[in-house]
Amino acid sequence: MIKIFAVKIISLMLVLLLLLSACTPKSSVKQENPQGNKIVTIKFVDVMPSPERDQIYQEIINEFTKVYPNIKVDLETIPWDQAHDKLVALAASKQLPDVIMLHPLWVPEFISAGWVKRIDSYYQHFKYKNDLIPFVKDVMIQKRQKDVYGGIYYLVDTVNVHALYVRSDWFKEAGIPLPKTWNEVFEAAKKLTDPAKNRYGFAYRGARLGFEQIMDYVFTALHGQLYDKDGNCLISTPPAVEAFIRYTDLYKKGYSPKDSINWGYREMVQAFTSGLVGIMNQTSEVIEVCKKNMKEGTWEVIPFPKADDGKIYSSALAFGYAISANSSHPDEAWKFIEFLSSPDINLKYAKGNGFLPIVKQGISDPYFTEGPMKGYYDTLNSPDLVALPDWGYFPQLGEFTESIMDAEVQKYLLGQQSAEETLKKLADYLTKYQKEYMKEHPNIPVPQPFSLR
Protein backbone atom coordinates (compact mmCIF):
# COMPACT_ATOMS: atom_id res chain seq x y z
CA MET A 1 0.00 0.00 0.00
CA ILE A 2 2.84 2.35 0.89
CA LYS A 3 4.57 1.50 -2.40
CA ILE A 4 1.43 2.31 -4.36
CA PHE A 5 1.04 5.61 -2.52
CA ALA A 6 4.71 6.49 -3.15
CA VAL A 7 4.35 5.73 -6.85
CA LYS A 8 1.30 8.01 -7.03
CA ILE A 9 3.20 10.82 -5.28
CA ILE A 10 6.16 10.47 -7.65
CA SER A 11 3.85 10.39 -10.66
CA LEU A 12 2.05 13.53 -9.45
CA MET A 13 5.37 15.33 -8.96
CA LEU A 14 6.47 14.43 -12.48
CA VAL A 15 3.23 15.79 -13.93
CA LEU A 16 3.63 19.04 -11.99
CA LEU A 17 7.22 19.39 -13.19
CA LEU A 18 6.12 18.89 -16.77
CA LEU A 19 3.37 21.48 -16.41
CA LEU A 20 5.74 24.02 -14.89
CA SER A 21 8.22 23.40 -17.67
CA ALA A 22 5.56 23.91 -20.33
CA CYS A 23 4.38 27.17 -18.73
CA THR A 24 7.83 28.71 -18.36
CA PRO A 25 8.41 31.55 -20.88
CA LYS A 26 11.05 30.78 -23.46
CA SER A 27 13.00 33.91 -22.55
CA SER A 28 13.56 32.55 -19.06
CA VAL A 29 14.82 29.19 -20.24
CA LYS A 30 18.51 28.99 -19.53
CA GLN A 31 20.53 28.58 -22.70
CA GLU A 32 24.25 28.48 -23.09
CA ASN A 33 26.58 29.17 -25.98
CA PRO A 34 29.54 26.90 -26.81
CA GLN A 35 31.68 28.87 -24.33
CA GLY A 36 29.27 27.98 -21.55
CA ASN A 37 27.88 31.49 -21.11
CA LYS A 38 24.17 32.09 -20.65
CA ILE A 39 22.38 33.34 -23.77
CA VAL A 40 19.91 36.20 -23.52
CA THR A 41 17.31 36.46 -26.30
CA ILE A 42 15.98 39.86 -27.35
CA LYS A 43 13.35 40.61 -29.95
CA PHE A 44 13.65 43.33 -32.59
CA VAL A 45 10.73 44.42 -34.76
CA ASP A 46 11.06 46.21 -38.10
CA VAL A 47 8.06 48.01 -39.63
CA MET A 48 9.31 48.47 -43.20
CA PRO A 49 9.97 44.87 -44.22
CA SER A 50 10.98 43.63 -47.63
CA PRO A 51 12.96 40.55 -48.67
CA GLU A 52 16.04 42.68 -49.35
CA ARG A 53 15.76 44.65 -46.11
CA ASP A 54 15.13 41.51 -44.07
CA GLN A 55 18.26 39.94 -45.53
CA ILE A 56 20.39 42.98 -44.63
CA TYR A 57 19.13 42.93 -41.07
CA GLN A 58 19.77 39.21 -40.78
CA GLU A 59 23.33 39.67 -42.01
CA ILE A 60 23.86 42.44 -39.45
CA ILE A 61 22.36 40.26 -36.71
CA ASN A 62 24.75 37.46 -37.64
CA GLU A 63 27.69 39.87 -37.35
CA PHE A 64 26.36 41.11 -34.01
CA THR A 65 26.17 37.56 -32.69
CA LYS A 66 29.84 37.04 -33.50
CA VAL A 67 30.74 40.04 -31.35
CA TYR A 68 28.19 39.24 -28.63
CA PRO A 69 27.76 35.44 -28.65
CA ASN A 70 25.72 35.60 -25.44
CA ILE A 71 22.97 37.70 -27.07
CA LYS A 72 20.51 36.18 -29.53
CA VAL A 73 18.40 38.58 -31.63
CA ASP A 74 15.09 37.43 -33.06
CA LEU A 75 13.99 39.56 -36.01
CA GLU A 76 10.25 40.16 -36.31
CA THR A 77 8.49 42.23 -38.96
CA ILE A 78 5.15 44.02 -39.28
CA PRO A 79 3.94 45.31 -42.68
CA TRP A 80 4.04 49.11 -42.80
CA ASP A 81 0.29 49.60 -43.28
CA GLN A 82 -0.42 47.61 -40.11
CA ALA A 83 2.58 48.70 -38.06
CA HIS A 84 1.19 51.56 -35.98
CA ASP A 85 -1.95 49.80 -34.82
CA LYS A 86 -0.17 46.53 -34.05
CA LEU A 87 2.58 48.22 -32.07
CA VAL A 88 0.00 50.17 -30.07
CA ALA A 89 -1.85 46.94 -29.29
CA LEU A 90 1.38 45.25 -28.21
CA ALA A 91 2.35 48.25 -26.10
CA ALA A 92 -1.03 48.39 -24.39
CA SER A 93 -0.66 44.75 -23.37
CA LYS A 94 3.02 45.23 -22.38
CA GLN A 95 4.21 42.85 -25.05
CA LEU A 96 6.37 45.15 -27.16
CA PRO A 97 9.58 43.56 -28.42
CA ASP A 98 12.79 44.73 -26.74
CA VAL A 99 13.88 46.94 -29.66
CA ILE A 100 11.33 48.63 -31.90
CA MET A 101 11.62 50.65 -35.09
CA LEU A 102 9.73 53.85 -34.31
CA HIS A 103 8.31 56.22 -36.94
CA PRO A 104 8.81 59.92 -36.06
CA LEU A 105 5.06 60.61 -36.15
CA TRP A 106 4.51 58.00 -33.42
CA VAL A 107 7.13 59.39 -31.04
CA PRO A 108 4.87 61.75 -28.99
CA GLU A 109 2.28 59.02 -28.51
CA PHE A 110 4.78 56.37 -27.39
CA ILE A 111 6.71 58.69 -25.07
CA SER A 112 3.56 60.15 -23.51
CA ALA A 113 2.18 56.67 -22.85
CA GLY A 114 5.46 55.54 -21.28
CA TRP A 115 5.94 52.75 -23.81
CA VAL A 116 9.60 53.46 -24.59
CA LYS A 117 12.57 53.73 -22.28
CA ARG A 118 14.66 56.88 -21.83
CA ILE A 119 18.22 56.12 -22.98
CA ASP A 120 20.26 59.14 -21.80
CA SER A 121 22.46 57.00 -19.56
CA TYR A 122 23.29 54.72 -22.48
CA TYR A 123 23.90 57.58 -24.90
CA GLN A 124 26.28 59.21 -22.42
CA HIS A 125 28.65 56.27 -22.96
CA PHE A 126 27.80 55.72 -26.63
CA LYS A 127 31.00 54.52 -28.34
CA TYR A 128 30.33 56.25 -31.65
CA LYS A 129 28.98 59.61 -30.44
CA ASN A 130 31.80 61.53 -32.13
CA ASP A 131 31.10 59.81 -35.45
CA LEU A 132 27.57 61.24 -35.72
CA ILE A 133 26.99 64.00 -38.28
CA PRO A 134 26.03 67.41 -36.83
CA PHE A 135 22.44 67.14 -38.12
CA VAL A 136 21.88 64.02 -36.03
CA LYS A 137 23.46 65.41 -32.85
CA ASP A 138 22.16 68.97 -33.06
CA VAL A 139 18.71 68.37 -34.57
CA MET A 140 17.55 64.78 -34.21
CA ILE A 141 18.86 64.40 -30.66
CA GLN A 142 19.06 67.90 -29.18
CA LYS A 143 16.23 69.86 -30.84
CA ARG A 144 13.77 67.02 -31.46
CA GLN A 145 14.27 65.12 -28.20
CA LYS A 146 16.15 66.84 -25.39
CA ASP A 147 14.57 70.26 -25.94
CA VAL A 148 11.08 68.77 -26.14
CA TYR A 149 10.99 65.71 -23.89
CA GLY A 150 13.86 66.51 -21.57
CA GLY A 151 15.77 63.42 -22.61
CA ILE A 152 16.64 60.92 -25.33
CA TYR A 153 14.29 58.09 -26.25
CA TYR A 154 15.56 56.77 -29.58
CA LEU A 155 18.58 56.77 -31.86
CA VAL A 156 17.88 57.41 -35.53
CA ASP A 157 18.78 54.76 -38.07
CA THR A 158 19.48 57.11 -40.99
CA VAL A 159 18.58 60.61 -42.20
CA ASN A 160 15.66 60.94 -44.57
CA VAL A 161 15.01 64.06 -46.65
CA HIS A 162 12.94 64.35 -49.81
CA ALA A 163 13.95 64.59 -53.46
CA LEU A 164 12.17 64.23 -56.80
CA TYR A 165 12.30 61.23 -59.11
CA VAL A 166 11.94 62.33 -62.71
CA ARG A 167 11.63 60.62 -66.08
CA SER A 168 14.56 62.49 -67.62
CA ASP A 169 13.83 60.91 -71.02
CA TRP A 170 10.32 62.45 -70.97
CA PHE A 171 11.74 65.87 -70.13
CA LYS A 172 14.25 65.58 -72.96
CA GLU A 173 11.56 64.49 -75.36
CA ALA A 174 9.32 67.43 -74.34
CA GLY A 175 12.23 69.86 -74.55
CA ILE A 176 11.84 71.18 -71.00
CA PRO A 177 14.54 71.48 -68.30
CA LEU A 178 14.46 69.45 -65.13
CA PRO A 179 12.60 71.43 -62.45
CA LYS A 180 14.50 73.33 -59.77
CA THR A 181 11.51 75.19 -58.30
CA TRP A 182 7.95 74.32 -57.36
CA ASN A 183 6.65 76.58 -60.12
CA GLU A 184 8.63 74.54 -62.63
CA VAL A 185 7.27 71.30 -61.13
CA PHE A 186 3.67 72.40 -61.70
CA GLU A 187 4.44 73.55 -65.23
CA ALA A 188 6.26 70.32 -66.07
CA ALA A 189 3.44 68.17 -64.66
CA LYS A 190 1.05 69.88 -67.05
CA LYS A 191 3.32 69.58 -70.11
CA LEU A 192 4.23 65.94 -69.48
CA THR A 193 0.61 64.80 -69.20
CA ASP A 194 -0.70 63.04 -72.30
CA PRO A 195 -3.64 60.69 -71.56
CA ALA A 196 -3.57 59.44 -75.16
CA LYS A 197 -0.14 57.95 -74.45
CA ASN A 198 -1.24 56.91 -70.94
CA ARG A 199 1.28 59.38 -69.51
CA TYR A 200 0.71 61.64 -66.55
CA GLY A 201 2.99 64.33 -65.23
CA PHE A 202 2.78 63.72 -61.50
CA ALA A 203 2.41 60.86 -59.00
CA TYR A 204 -0.27 62.12 -56.62
CA ARG A 205 -0.49 60.38 -53.25
CA GLY A 206 -4.14 60.37 -52.26
CA ALA A 207 -4.17 57.66 -49.61
CA ARG A 208 -2.21 57.15 -46.39
CA LEU A 209 0.13 60.05 -45.49
CA GLY A 210 -0.84 61.88 -48.68
CA PHE A 211 -1.49 65.04 -46.67
CA GLU A 212 2.17 65.09 -45.67
CA GLN A 213 3.11 65.51 -49.32
CA ILE A 214 0.54 68.26 -49.76
CA MET A 215 2.10 70.03 -46.79
CA ASP A 216 5.53 69.86 -48.44
CA TYR A 217 4.18 72.55 -50.75
CA VAL A 218 1.81 74.32 -48.33
CA PHE A 219 4.76 74.98 -46.03
CA THR A 220 6.38 77.05 -48.78
CA ALA A 221 3.49 79.51 -48.47
CA LEU A 222 3.88 79.57 -44.68
CA HIS A 223 7.69 79.85 -44.78
CA GLY A 224 7.88 76.66 -42.75
CA GLN A 225 5.65 77.83 -39.89
CA LEU A 226 2.90 75.54 -38.60
CA TYR A 227 1.72 77.44 -35.50
CA ASP A 228 1.85 81.02 -34.32
CA LYS A 229 3.31 81.84 -30.90
CA ASP A 230 -0.06 81.21 -29.21
CA GLY A 231 -0.46 77.72 -30.69
CA ASN A 232 -2.95 78.59 -33.45
CA CYS A 233 -2.43 76.32 -36.45
CA LEU A 234 -1.81 78.26 -39.65
CA ILE A 235 -2.86 75.74 -42.29
CA SER A 236 -6.33 77.30 -42.72
CA THR A 237 -5.00 80.81 -43.43
CA PRO A 238 -5.53 82.22 -46.95
CA PRO A 239 -1.93 81.57 -48.19
CA ALA A 240 -2.17 77.97 -47.02
CA VAL A 241 -5.58 77.43 -48.63
CA GLU A 242 -4.28 78.83 -51.93
CA ALA A 243 -1.26 76.53 -51.84
CA PHE A 244 -3.46 73.55 -50.90
CA ILE A 245 -5.72 74.16 -53.89
CA ARG A 246 -2.78 74.55 -56.28
CA TYR A 247 -1.23 71.27 -55.14
CA THR A 248 -4.43 69.23 -55.10
CA ASP A 249 -5.21 70.55 -58.59
CA LEU A 250 -2.45 68.21 -59.77
CA TYR A 251 -5.07 65.53 -59.15
CA LYS A 252 -8.25 67.46 -59.88
CA LYS A 253 -7.02 68.78 -63.22
CA GLY A 254 -5.96 65.34 -64.41
CA TYR A 255 -2.16 65.61 -64.21
CA SER A 256 -2.23 62.38 -62.22
CA PRO A 257 -4.36 59.29 -62.96
CA LYS A 258 -7.89 59.27 -61.59
CA ASP A 259 -7.25 56.29 -59.33
CA SER A 260 -4.29 58.04 -57.68
CA ILE A 261 -6.79 59.26 -55.07
CA ASN A 262 -6.21 55.78 -53.61
CA TRP A 263 -2.46 55.66 -54.09
CA GLY A 264 -0.10 55.06 -51.22
CA TYR A 265 3.61 54.40 -51.25
CA ARG A 266 3.56 51.19 -53.29
CA GLU A 267 1.15 52.46 -55.92
CA MET A 268 3.19 55.62 -56.47
CA VAL A 269 6.40 53.68 -56.95
CA GLN A 270 4.71 51.21 -59.28
CA ALA A 271 3.29 54.08 -61.36
CA PHE A 272 6.71 55.68 -61.75
CA THR A 273 8.68 52.53 -62.53
CA SER A 274 6.06 51.31 -65.02
CA GLY A 275 6.13 54.54 -67.01
CA LEU A 276 2.74 55.91 -65.99
CA VAL A 277 3.96 59.12 -64.30
CA GLY A 278 6.91 61.43 -64.89
CA ILE A 279 7.53 63.13 -61.51
CA MET A 280 7.40 61.55 -58.06
CA ASN A 281 8.12 62.89 -54.57
CA GLN A 282 9.60 59.99 -52.65
CA THR A 283 12.27 58.93 -50.23
CA SER A 284 15.59 57.37 -51.10
CA GLU A 285 14.87 53.67 -50.59
CA VAL A 286 13.00 53.75 -53.93
CA ILE A 287 16.32 54.10 -55.77
CA GLU A 288 17.00 50.37 -55.63
CA VAL A 289 13.51 49.63 -56.97
CA CYS A 290 14.12 51.96 -59.90
CA LYS A 291 17.51 50.41 -60.63
CA LYS A 292 15.92 46.98 -60.86
CA ASN A 293 12.88 47.96 -62.91
CA MET A 294 13.92 50.83 -65.18
CA LYS A 295 16.39 51.31 -68.00
CA GLU A 296 19.50 53.28 -67.21
CA GLY A 297 19.31 56.82 -68.56
CA THR A 298 15.51 57.06 -68.41
CA TRP A 299 15.29 58.43 -64.88
CA GLU A 300 17.22 60.32 -62.25
CA VAL A 301 16.86 61.87 -58.81
CA ILE A 302 17.09 65.64 -58.40
CA PRO A 303 17.14 67.86 -55.28
CA PHE A 304 13.83 68.88 -53.74
CA PRO A 305 12.41 72.03 -55.41
CA LYS A 306 12.85 75.55 -54.09
CA ALA A 307 10.03 77.85 -53.00
CA ASP A 308 9.51 81.39 -54.24
CA ASP A 309 11.75 82.66 -51.42
CA GLY A 310 14.62 80.47 -52.60
CA LYS A 311 14.42 78.05 -49.66
CA ILE A 312 14.02 74.27 -49.80
CA TYR A 313 11.31 73.26 -47.33
CA SER A 314 11.64 69.54 -46.72
CA SER A 315 10.91 67.14 -43.92
CA ALA A 316 14.16 65.85 -42.46
CA LEU A 317 13.16 62.90 -40.36
CA ALA A 318 14.17 59.36 -39.63
CA PHE A 319 12.93 56.18 -38.08
CA GLY A 320 14.50 55.48 -34.73
CA TYR A 321 15.61 52.51 -32.66
CA ALA A 322 13.89 52.57 -29.26
CA ILE A 323 13.94 50.23 -26.27
CA SER A 324 10.51 49.22 -25.04
CA ALA A 325 9.71 50.11 -21.44
CA ASN A 326 8.66 46.52 -20.76
CA SER A 327 11.96 45.01 -21.95
CA SER A 328 13.55 42.59 -19.49
CA HIS A 329 16.92 43.06 -21.16
CA PRO A 330 17.49 46.80 -21.79
CA ASP A 331 21.29 46.52 -21.52
CA GLU A 332 21.42 43.89 -24.24
CA ALA A 333 18.90 45.87 -26.31
CA TRP A 334 21.17 48.93 -26.13
CA LYS A 335 24.20 46.88 -27.19
CA PHE A 336 22.28 45.90 -30.30
CA ILE A 337 21.26 49.52 -31.03
CA GLU A 338 24.85 50.66 -30.50
CA PHE A 339 26.08 48.00 -32.90
CA LEU A 340 23.50 49.04 -35.51
CA SER A 341 24.77 52.61 -35.17
CA SER A 342 28.48 51.85 -35.52
CA PRO A 343 30.08 53.42 -38.64
CA ASP A 344 30.69 50.24 -40.63
CA ILE A 345 27.28 48.75 -39.87
CA ASN A 346 25.38 52.00 -40.40
CA LEU A 347 27.06 52.48 -43.81
CA LYS A 348 26.21 48.90 -44.76
CA TYR A 349 22.59 49.41 -43.69
CA ALA A 350 22.29 52.82 -45.38
CA LYS A 351 23.69 51.59 -48.68
CA GLY A 352 21.62 48.43 -48.62
CA ASN A 353 18.39 50.34 -48.06
CA GLY A 354 19.16 53.54 -49.95
CA PHE A 355 19.29 56.04 -47.09
CA LEU A 356 21.71 58.73 -45.95
CA PRO A 357 23.90 57.50 -43.07
CA ILE A 358 24.09 59.07 -39.63
CA VAL A 359 27.89 58.89 -39.48
CA LYS A 360 30.54 61.25 -40.86
CA GLN A 361 32.21 58.43 -42.77
CA GLY A 362 29.48 58.70 -45.42
CA ILE A 363 30.36 62.30 -46.35
CA SER A 364 33.13 61.25 -48.74
CA ASP A 365 31.61 57.97 -49.91
CA PRO A 366 30.88 58.07 -53.68
CA TYR A 367 27.72 56.03 -53.16
CA PHE A 368 26.13 59.06 -51.51
CA THR A 369 27.88 61.91 -53.36
CA GLU A 370 27.38 60.55 -56.88
CA GLY A 371 24.56 58.89 -58.85
CA PRO A 372 20.92 58.84 -57.71
CA MET A 373 21.72 59.37 -54.01
CA LYS A 374 23.29 62.72 -54.90
CA GLY A 375 19.83 64.27 -55.14
CA TYR A 376 19.24 63.52 -51.45
CA TYR A 377 22.80 64.35 -50.45
CA ASP A 378 22.51 67.75 -52.14
CA THR A 379 19.14 68.44 -50.50
CA LEU A 380 20.45 67.66 -47.00
CA ASN A 381 23.61 69.70 -47.51
CA SER A 382 22.01 72.65 -49.30
CA PRO A 383 22.53 76.01 -47.54
CA ASP A 384 18.91 76.72 -48.45
CA LEU A 385 17.44 73.72 -46.64
CA VAL A 386 14.81 74.45 -43.98
CA ALA A 387 13.73 71.34 -42.09
CA LEU A 388 9.99 71.32 -41.51
CA PRO A 389 8.64 71.48 -37.95
CA ASP A 390 7.09 68.56 -36.12
CA TRP A 391 3.30 68.44 -36.17
CA GLY A 392 3.38 68.69 -32.41
CA TYR A 393 4.29 66.70 -29.32
CA PHE A 394 0.83 65.82 -28.02
CA PRO A 395 -0.22 62.14 -27.93
CA GLN A 396 -3.31 62.72 -30.10
CA LEU A 397 -0.98 63.25 -33.04
CA GLY A 398 -1.10 59.53 -33.85
CA GLU A 399 -4.86 59.70 -34.37
CA PHE A 400 -4.49 62.80 -36.54
CA THR A 401 -1.89 61.31 -38.89
CA GLU A 402 -3.32 57.80 -39.04
CA SER A 403 -7.07 58.42 -39.14
CA ILE A 404 -8.05 62.04 -39.70
CA MET A 405 -5.93 64.10 -42.08
CA ASP A 406 -6.09 61.95 -45.21
CA ALA A 407 -9.78 61.15 -44.74
CA GLU A 408 -10.63 64.87 -44.68
CA VAL A 409 -8.56 65.59 -47.79
CA GLN A 410 -10.29 62.78 -49.68
CA LYS A 411 -13.64 64.39 -48.88
CA TYR A 412 -12.39 67.51 -50.64
CA LEU A 413 -11.10 65.58 -53.64
CA LEU A 414 -14.48 63.85 -53.96
CA GLY A 415 -16.35 67.16 -53.84
CA GLN A 416 -17.91 66.54 -50.44
CA GLN A 417 -16.50 69.69 -48.82
CA SER A 418 -14.54 72.80 -49.77
CA ALA A 419 -10.83 73.39 -49.37
CA GLU A 420 -11.56 75.95 -46.64
CA GLU A 421 -13.76 73.48 -44.73
CA THR A 422 -11.14 70.76 -45.03
CA LEU A 423 -8.28 72.83 -43.72
CA LYS A 424 -10.37 74.41 -40.98
CA LYS A 425 -11.24 70.98 -39.58
CA LEU A 426 -7.59 69.95 -39.59
CA ALA A 427 -6.38 73.27 -38.21
CA ASP A 428 -9.00 73.23 -35.43
CA TYR A 429 -7.91 69.75 -34.36
CA LEU A 430 -4.23 70.67 -34.24
CA THR A 431 -4.91 74.00 -32.53
CA LYS A 432 -7.01 72.38 -29.80
CA TYR A 433 -4.40 69.85 -28.77
CA GLN A 434 -1.43 72.14 -29.29
CA LYS A 435 -2.94 74.70 -26.92
CA GLU A 436 -3.79 72.03 -24.36
CA TYR A 437 -0.23 70.77 -24.58
CA MET A 438 1.16 74.29 -24.13
CA LYS A 439 -0.89 74.76 -20.94
CA GLU A 440 0.48 71.54 -19.50
CA HIS A 441 4.04 72.13 -20.78
CA PRO A 442 4.59 75.92 -20.77
CA ASN A 443 8.37 75.60 -21.11
CA ILE A 444 8.34 73.50 -24.28
CA PRO A 445 8.58 75.70 -27.39
CA VAL A 446 6.05 75.68 -30.22
CA PRO A 447 7.34 73.41 -33.05
CA GLN A 448 9.56 75.45 -35.33
CA PRO A 449 11.31 74.95 -38.67
CA PHE A 450 15.07 75.01 -38.37
CA SER A 451 18.27 75.16 -40.32
CA LEU A 452 21.86 74.49 -39.32
CA ARG A 453 23.07 77.28 -41.56
Topology readout:
Blueprint: H1 2-23, E1 31-32, E2 38-46, H2 51-67, E3 71-77, H3 80-92, E4 99-102, H4 107-112, H5 120-124, H6 134-149, E5 155-156, E6 163-166, H7 168-174, H8 182-192, E7 200-202, H9 210-221, H10 238-252, H11 265-273, E8 277-282, H12 286-293, E9 300-303, E10 312-314, E11 320-323, H13 330-340, H14 343-353, H15 366-369, H16 374-380, E12 385-387, H17 397-413, H18 419-440
Parallel strand pairs: 2-3, 2-4, 7-8, 10-12
Antiparallel strand pairs: 1-2, 4-11, 5-11, 6-8, 6-9
Helix pairs in contact: 2-14, 9-10, 17-18
Task: Kindly describe this structure.
The chain contains 18 helices and 12 strands. It has 453 residues and is α/β, with parallel strands linked by helices. The strands form 3 sheets. Strands 1, 2, 3, 4, 5 and 11 form a 6-stranded mixed β-sheet that branches. It has 2 domains: 33-160 and 317-387, D-Maltodextrin-Binding Protein, domain 2 (3-Layer(aba) Sandwich), CATH 3.40.190; 164-313 and 395-440, Periplasmic binding protein-like II (D-Maltodextrin-Binding Protein, domain 2). Strand 1 and strand 2 (38-46) form a beta hairpin. Mean pLDDT is 92; it is low at 1-30. It has helices spanning 2-23, 51-67, 80-92, 107-112, 120-124, 134-149, 168-174, 182-192, 210-221, 238-252, 265-273, 286-293, 330-340, 343-353, 366-369, 374-380, 397-413, 419-440; strands at 31-32, 38-46, 71-77, 99-102, 155-156, 163-166, 200-202, 277-282, 300-303, 312-314, 320-323, 385-387. The longest helix has 22 residues, at 2-23.
